[in-house]
Amino acid sequence: MNKPSFLARPEAAMSLLTSRADPMLRSQLTLATCALVIVIGLADFKLGTEVSMQVFYFLPVVLAVIARGWIFGIGISVACVTIWVGGDIAAGARYSSLVVPLWNASITLTTYLVLVWLLSILIHLQHDLEQRVEQRTSALASEIAERKRLEKNILEISERERRSIGHDLHDGLSQHLTGTAITGQLLADRLQERSAEETDDARKLVNLVKTAIAQTRQMAKGLLLADIDAEGLLSALSEFCATTTEQFRVTCTFVNKDPPVSLPSDNGVSSHLFRIAQEAVRNAVRHGGAKHIDVSLHTRNHCLTLMVQDDGSGLPPASQRGEGLGLRIMAHRAQMIGATFAIERLPTGGTIVRCLLPLSSNE
Predict the structure, then answer these.
(1) Pairing of the two strands 292-299 and 251-255
(2) Which of 42, 52, 64, 149 could crosslink 76 through cysteines, CB 3.0-4.6 Å?
(3) pLDDT digits over 165-211, tens only?
(4) Which residues constitute the domain of residue 331?
Protein backbone atom coordinates (compact mmCIF):
# COMPACT_ATOMS: atom_id res chain seq x y z
CA MET A 1 0.00 0.00 0.00
CA ASN A 2 1.44 3.34 -1.06
CA LYS A 3 1.65 6.01 1.58
CA PRO A 4 0.36 9.50 0.85
CA SER A 5 3.08 11.87 -0.32
CA PHE A 6 2.97 13.92 2.88
CA LEU A 7 3.71 10.75 4.88
CA ALA A 8 6.30 9.35 2.49
CA ARG A 9 8.12 12.69 2.35
CA PRO A 10 8.00 14.73 5.57
CA GLU A 11 9.44 17.77 3.79
CA ALA A 12 6.37 17.77 1.54
CA ALA A 13 4.12 18.29 4.55
CA MET A 14 6.27 21.25 5.61
CA SER A 15 5.72 22.82 2.20
CA LEU A 16 2.06 23.20 3.12
CA LEU A 17 3.10 26.15 5.26
CA THR A 18 4.04 28.02 2.09
CA SER A 19 1.82 29.48 -0.59
CA ARG A 20 3.25 27.13 -3.24
CA ALA A 21 1.92 23.89 -1.73
CA ASP A 22 0.73 21.23 -4.15
CA PRO A 23 -3.12 21.18 -4.38
CA MET A 24 -3.06 17.37 -4.54
CA LEU A 25 -1.03 17.30 -1.35
CA ARG A 26 -3.61 19.50 0.35
CA SER A 27 -6.39 17.17 -0.79
CA GLN A 28 -4.56 14.16 0.60
CA LEU A 29 -4.02 15.91 3.91
CA THR A 30 -7.70 16.90 4.05
CA LEU A 31 -8.79 13.28 3.61
CA ALA A 32 -6.25 12.16 6.20
CA THR A 33 -7.61 14.75 8.66
CA CYS A 34 -11.16 13.50 8.29
CA ALA A 35 -10.05 9.88 8.61
CA LEU A 36 -8.01 10.73 11.71
CA VAL A 37 -11.04 12.33 13.37
CA ILE A 38 -13.06 9.17 12.75
CA VAL A 39 -10.29 6.87 14.03
CA ILE A 40 -9.78 8.91 17.22
CA GLY A 41 -13.53 9.09 17.74
CA LEU A 42 -13.91 5.29 17.46
CA ALA A 43 -10.99 4.78 19.83
CA ASP A 44 -12.55 7.23 22.28
CA PHE A 45 -15.86 5.33 22.13
CA LYS A 46 -14.15 1.96 22.66
CA LEU A 47 -12.14 3.18 25.65
CA GLY A 48 -15.22 4.63 27.30
CA THR A 49 -15.31 7.47 29.80
CA GLU A 50 -12.45 6.31 32.01
CA VAL A 51 -9.69 7.27 29.52
CA SER A 52 -9.70 10.81 28.07
CA MET A 53 -8.80 11.23 24.40
CA GLN A 54 -9.10 15.04 24.27
CA VAL A 55 -5.40 15.66 23.64
CA PHE A 56 -5.36 13.41 20.57
CA TYR A 57 -7.92 15.63 18.83
CA PHE A 58 -5.27 18.38 18.65
CA LEU A 59 -3.60 16.57 15.75
CA PRO A 60 -6.50 16.66 13.26
CA VAL A 61 -7.23 20.27 14.26
CA VAL A 62 -3.64 21.26 13.45
CA LEU A 63 -3.67 19.34 10.17
CA ALA A 64 -6.99 20.91 9.21
CA VAL A 65 -5.62 24.46 9.58
CA ILE A 66 -2.49 23.57 7.63
CA ALA A 67 -4.45 21.87 4.85
CA ARG A 68 -7.35 24.29 4.31
CA GLY A 69 -7.07 27.25 6.62
CA TRP A 70 -8.80 28.51 9.76
CA ILE A 71 -12.38 27.96 8.52
CA PHE A 72 -11.78 24.27 7.96
CA GLY A 73 -9.94 24.18 11.29
CA ILE A 74 -13.00 25.54 13.10
CA GLY A 75 -15.19 22.95 11.40
CA ILE A 76 -12.90 20.10 12.45
CA SER A 77 -12.76 21.53 15.98
CA VAL A 78 -16.56 21.48 16.24
CA ALA A 79 -16.62 17.95 14.79
CA CYS A 80 -14.02 16.75 17.32
CA VAL A 81 -15.92 18.21 20.29
CA THR A 82 -19.20 16.77 19.02
CA ILE A 83 -17.70 13.30 18.52
CA TRP A 84 -15.95 13.45 21.92
CA VAL A 85 -19.09 14.44 23.85
CA GLY A 86 -21.35 12.19 21.78
CA GLY A 87 -18.98 9.24 22.27
CA ASP A 88 -18.97 9.72 26.05
CA ILE A 89 -22.77 9.87 26.14
CA ALA A 90 -23.03 6.80 23.89
CA ALA A 91 -20.53 4.99 26.15
CA GLY A 92 -22.89 5.49 29.11
CA ALA A 93 -21.67 8.71 30.71
CA ARG A 94 -24.24 10.23 33.09
CA TYR A 95 -24.30 13.91 34.07
CA SER A 96 -26.14 15.59 36.92
CA SER A 97 -27.24 18.38 34.62
CA LEU A 98 -27.22 19.21 30.91
CA VAL A 99 -25.05 22.18 31.76
CA VAL A 100 -22.08 19.89 32.59
CA PRO A 101 -21.52 18.39 29.08
CA LEU A 102 -22.25 21.78 27.53
CA TRP A 103 -19.65 23.41 29.81
CA ASN A 104 -17.06 20.71 29.07
CA ALA A 105 -17.71 21.02 25.34
CA SER A 106 -17.41 24.82 25.50
CA ILE A 107 -14.08 24.72 27.34
CA THR A 108 -12.64 22.12 24.96
CA LEU A 109 -13.92 23.97 21.90
CA THR A 110 -12.42 27.22 23.18
CA THR A 111 -9.05 25.48 23.57
CA TYR A 112 -9.23 24.17 20.01
CA LEU A 113 -10.26 27.60 18.67
CA VAL A 114 -7.30 29.26 20.40
CA LEU A 115 -5.04 26.68 18.77
CA VAL A 116 -6.64 27.40 15.39
CA TRP A 117 -6.14 31.15 15.90
CA LEU A 118 -2.46 30.84 16.87
CA LEU A 119 -1.69 28.45 14.07
CA SER A 120 -3.46 30.69 11.53
CA ILE A 121 -1.35 33.65 12.64
CA LEU A 122 1.80 31.55 12.32
CA ILE A 123 0.90 30.47 8.79
CA HIS A 124 0.02 34.04 7.84
CA LEU A 125 3.38 35.25 9.11
CA GLN A 126 5.06 32.44 7.18
CA HIS A 127 3.30 33.48 3.96
CA ASP A 128 4.17 37.12 4.55
CA LEU A 129 7.83 36.26 5.14
CA GLU A 130 7.87 34.14 2.00
CA GLN A 131 6.47 36.99 -0.08
CA ARG A 132 9.02 39.41 1.34
CA VAL A 133 11.84 37.00 0.54
CA GLU A 134 10.56 36.55 -3.01
CA GLN A 135 10.25 40.30 -3.52
CA ARG A 136 13.73 40.91 -2.13
CA THR A 137 15.17 38.10 -4.26
CA SER A 138 13.51 39.50 -7.36
CA ALA A 139 14.81 42.98 -6.54
CA LEU A 140 18.34 41.65 -6.02
CA ALA A 141 18.19 39.73 -9.29
CA SER A 142 17.07 42.88 -11.09
CA GLU A 143 19.84 44.89 -9.45
CA ILE A 144 22.45 42.29 -10.43
CA ALA A 145 21.17 42.19 -14.02
CA GLU A 146 21.20 45.98 -14.19
CA ARG A 147 24.70 46.11 -12.74
CA LYS A 148 25.95 43.59 -15.31
CA ARG A 149 24.31 45.59 -18.08
CA LEU A 150 25.93 48.80 -16.88
CA GLU A 151 29.33 47.12 -16.55
CA LYS A 152 28.99 45.77 -20.08
CA ASN A 153 28.06 49.24 -21.35
CA ILE A 154 31.04 50.74 -19.53
CA LEU A 155 33.37 48.24 -21.17
CA GLU A 156 31.83 48.95 -24.57
CA ILE A 157 32.23 52.68 -24.01
CA SER A 158 35.81 52.09 -22.90
CA GLU A 159 36.54 50.16 -26.10
CA ARG A 160 35.00 52.93 -28.22
CA GLU A 161 37.07 55.52 -26.38
CA ARG A 162 40.19 53.41 -26.92
CA ARG A 163 39.54 53.30 -30.64
CA SER A 164 38.76 57.02 -30.73
CA ILE A 165 41.96 57.92 -28.89
CA GLY A 166 43.93 55.50 -31.05
CA HIS A 167 42.62 57.13 -34.24
CA ASP A 168 43.37 60.59 -32.84
CA LEU A 169 46.93 59.54 -32.02
CA HIS A 170 47.49 57.85 -35.38
CA ASP A 171 45.71 60.30 -37.67
CA GLY A 172 46.17 63.47 -35.64
CA LEU A 173 49.15 63.66 -33.34
CA SER A 174 51.30 61.25 -35.35
CA GLN A 175 50.72 63.21 -38.57
CA HIS A 176 51.40 66.49 -36.78
CA LEU A 177 54.67 65.15 -35.38
CA THR A 178 55.60 63.86 -38.83
CA GLY A 179 55.11 67.32 -40.25
CA THR A 180 57.14 68.76 -37.40
CA ALA A 181 59.95 66.28 -38.12
CA ILE A 182 59.96 67.22 -41.82
CA THR A 183 60.07 70.92 -40.97
CA GLY A 184 62.89 70.29 -38.50
CA GLN A 185 64.81 68.29 -41.10
CA LEU A 186 64.50 71.14 -43.62
CA LEU A 187 65.68 73.55 -40.95
CA ALA A 188 68.67 71.33 -40.15
CA ASP A 189 69.57 71.14 -43.87
CA ARG A 190 69.50 74.93 -44.20
CA LEU A 191 71.63 75.33 -41.09
CA GLN A 192 74.10 72.81 -42.49
CA GLU A 193 74.32 74.77 -45.76
CA ARG A 194 75.29 77.84 -43.73
CA SER A 195 77.66 75.77 -41.58
CA ALA A 196 75.82 77.00 -38.47
CA GLU A 197 76.74 75.73 -35.05
CA GLU A 198 73.08 74.91 -34.31
CA THR A 199 73.01 72.17 -36.97
CA ASP A 200 73.70 69.32 -34.54
CA ASP A 201 71.09 70.64 -32.11
CA ALA A 202 68.53 70.78 -34.90
CA ARG A 203 69.27 67.18 -35.93
CA LYS A 204 68.96 66.03 -32.28
CA LEU A 205 65.59 67.75 -32.15
CA VAL A 206 64.52 65.93 -35.31
CA ASN A 207 65.60 62.58 -33.83
CA LEU A 208 63.61 63.28 -30.67
CA VAL A 209 60.53 64.05 -32.75
CA LYS A 210 61.02 60.81 -34.73
CA THR A 211 61.25 58.88 -31.45
CA ALA A 212 58.00 60.53 -30.34
CA ILE A 213 56.39 59.49 -33.64
CA ALA A 214 57.42 55.86 -33.12
CA GLN A 215 56.09 55.85 -29.55
CA THR A 216 52.84 57.48 -30.67
CA ARG A 217 52.31 54.86 -33.36
CA GLN A 218 52.98 52.05 -30.90
CA MET A 219 50.45 53.53 -28.48
CA ALA A 220 47.92 53.94 -31.29
CA LYS A 221 48.43 50.35 -32.42
CA GLY A 222 47.79 49.06 -28.88
CA LEU A 223 44.64 51.14 -28.58
CA LEU A 224 43.32 50.18 -32.02
CA LEU A 225 43.54 46.44 -31.25
CA ALA A 226 40.03 46.56 -29.82
CA ASP A 227 38.32 44.02 -32.05
CA ILE A 228 40.37 40.86 -32.58
CA ASP A 229 38.97 37.87 -34.39
CA ALA A 230 39.65 34.33 -33.23
CA GLU A 231 42.23 33.75 -35.97
CA GLY A 232 44.13 36.92 -35.11
CA LEU A 233 44.51 36.34 -31.38
CA LEU A 234 47.84 34.50 -31.62
CA SER A 235 49.41 37.07 -33.93
CA ALA A 236 48.05 39.94 -31.81
CA LEU A 237 49.55 38.48 -28.62
CA SER A 238 52.87 37.80 -30.35
CA GLU A 239 53.02 41.32 -31.76
CA PHE A 240 52.04 42.83 -28.43
CA CYS A 241 54.83 40.98 -26.63
CA ALA A 242 57.34 42.18 -29.23
CA THR A 243 56.10 45.76 -28.86
CA THR A 244 56.29 45.54 -25.07
CA THR A 245 59.87 44.31 -25.27
CA GLU A 246 60.85 47.25 -27.47
CA GLN A 247 58.87 49.91 -25.65
CA PHE A 248 59.62 49.05 -22.00
CA ARG A 249 63.08 47.47 -22.43
CA VAL A 250 61.99 44.18 -20.86
CA THR A 251 61.97 40.60 -22.09
CA CYS A 252 58.38 39.72 -22.98
CA THR A 253 57.87 36.43 -24.81
CA PHE A 254 54.81 34.68 -26.16
CA VAL A 255 54.61 30.88 -26.09
CA ASN A 256 52.01 28.79 -27.92
CA LYS A 257 52.74 25.20 -28.88
CA ASP A 258 49.15 24.05 -29.41
CA PRO A 259 47.29 24.30 -32.70
CA PRO A 260 44.92 27.28 -32.92
CA VAL A 261 41.42 26.70 -31.60
CA SER A 262 38.14 28.00 -32.93
CA LEU A 263 36.81 30.57 -30.50
CA PRO A 264 33.29 32.02 -30.58
CA SER A 265 33.25 35.55 -31.96
CA ASP A 266 29.77 36.65 -30.96
CA ASN A 267 30.79 37.87 -27.49
CA GLY A 268 34.30 39.08 -28.35
CA VAL A 269 36.17 36.25 -26.62
CA SER A 270 39.43 36.96 -28.43
CA SER A 271 39.27 40.68 -27.69
CA HIS A 272 38.65 40.08 -23.99
CA LEU A 273 41.47 37.53 -23.77
CA PHE A 274 43.85 39.97 -25.44
CA ARG A 275 42.82 42.80 -23.10
CA ILE A 276 43.33 40.56 -20.06
CA ALA A 277 46.84 39.69 -21.23
CA GLN A 278 47.54 43.32 -22.05
CA GLU A 279 46.45 44.53 -18.61
CA ALA A 280 48.40 41.78 -16.83
CA VAL A 281 51.61 42.58 -18.72
CA ARG A 282 51.31 46.30 -18.10
CA ASN A 283 50.66 45.71 -14.40
CA ALA A 284 53.78 43.53 -14.23
CA VAL A 285 55.90 46.25 -15.85
CA ARG A 286 54.50 49.32 -14.14
CA HIS A 287 53.65 48.03 -10.66
CA GLY A 288 55.74 44.88 -10.29
CA GLY A 289 58.95 46.11 -11.88
CA ALA A 290 59.24 42.86 -13.85
CA LYS A 291 62.17 42.29 -16.21
CA HIS A 292 61.00 39.03 -17.74
CA ILE A 293 57.39 38.23 -18.66
CA ASP A 294 56.03 35.05 -20.25
CA VAL A 295 52.65 35.04 -21.97
CA SER A 296 51.36 31.57 -22.87
CA LEU A 297 48.21 30.21 -24.45
CA HIS A 298 47.45 26.48 -24.47
CA THR A 299 44.57 24.02 -24.40
CA ARG A 300 44.20 21.15 -21.94
CA ASN A 301 41.17 18.96 -21.26
CA HIS A 302 38.74 21.07 -23.31
CA CYS A 303 39.92 24.25 -21.58
CA LEU A 304 41.81 27.20 -23.03
CA THR A 305 44.29 28.68 -20.55
CA LEU A 306 45.81 32.14 -20.87
CA MET A 307 48.70 32.61 -18.43
CA VAL A 308 50.92 35.62 -17.75
CA GLN A 309 53.91 35.00 -15.46
CA ASP A 310 56.49 37.58 -14.43
CA ASP A 311 59.53 37.87 -12.15
CA GLY A 312 58.52 41.16 -10.55
CA SER A 313 57.97 42.06 -6.92
CA GLY A 314 54.68 40.15 -6.83
CA LEU A 315 51.38 41.09 -5.30
CA PRO A 316 51.31 42.78 -1.89
CA PRO A 317 49.41 41.01 0.92
CA ALA A 318 45.63 40.93 0.51
CA SER A 319 45.19 43.32 3.45
CA GLN A 320 47.35 45.93 1.69
CA ARG A 321 46.44 45.22 -1.92
CA GLY A 322 42.80 46.32 -1.90
CA GLU A 323 40.74 45.98 -5.06
CA GLY A 324 42.59 47.63 -7.93
CA LEU A 325 40.64 48.80 -10.95
CA GLY A 326 42.79 46.74 -13.31
CA LEU A 327 42.17 43.53 -11.38
CA ARG A 328 38.44 44.14 -11.31
CA ILE A 329 38.34 44.86 -15.04
CA MET A 330 40.27 41.67 -15.84
CA ALA A 331 38.00 39.61 -13.58
CA HIS A 332 34.89 41.15 -15.14
CA ARG A 333 36.14 40.51 -18.66
CA ALA A 334 36.71 36.86 -17.74
CA GLN A 335 33.22 36.65 -16.28
CA MET A 336 31.67 38.10 -19.44
CA ILE A 337 33.12 35.30 -21.59
CA GLY A 338 32.36 32.54 -19.06
CA ALA A 339 35.95 32.09 -17.93
CA THR A 340 37.48 31.89 -14.46
CA PHE A 341 40.12 34.41 -13.39
CA ALA A 342 42.82 33.84 -10.80
CA ILE A 343 45.90 35.74 -9.71
CA GLU A 344 48.49 34.55 -7.21
CA ARG A 345 51.87 35.52 -5.84
CA LEU A 346 54.72 33.06 -6.34
CA PRO A 347 56.79 32.01 -3.31
CA THR A 348 59.99 32.88 -5.19
CA GLY A 349 58.67 36.27 -6.28
CA GLY A 350 56.60 37.35 -9.20
CA THR A 351 52.97 36.89 -10.14
CA ILE A 352 50.92 34.45 -12.19
CA VAL A 353 47.69 35.53 -13.83
CA ARG A 354 45.47 32.72 -15.15
CA CYS A 355 42.32 32.87 -17.20
CA LEU A 356 40.64 29.50 -17.89
CA LEU A 357 37.99 29.34 -20.60
CA PRO A 358 35.99 26.10 -21.00
CA LEU A 359 35.65 25.01 -24.63
CA SER A 360 32.76 23.13 -26.15
CA SER A 361 33.31 19.80 -27.84
CA ASN A 362 33.18 21.26 -31.37
CA GLU A 363 35.74 23.87 -30.39
Answers:
(1) parallel
(2) 64
(3) 877 777 788 788 888 888 888 888 888 888 888 888 888 888 888 88
(4) 230-363
